[in-house]
Amino acid sequence: MQTKKLYEGRGHTWYMFARDPERPQNIIDTNQYMVRAGKEAILLDPGGIELFPAMLAAIVHHIPAEHITHLFASHQDPDIISSLGLWDKTLPHAQLHAPWLWEGFLRHFGCNHIEYKAIPDEGQSLRLGGVELQFIPAHYLHSSGNFHVYDPVAKILMSGDVGAALLPEANTPLFVENFQEHTQYMRGFHQRWMPSNRAKDDWIRRVRTLDIEYLAPQHGSIFQGDDVKRFLDWFEALEVGTGVKGN
Question: What's the Cα-to-Cα distance from 6 to each of 57, 193, 222, rounded to whole Å?
Answer without folding.
Answer: 19, 27, 10
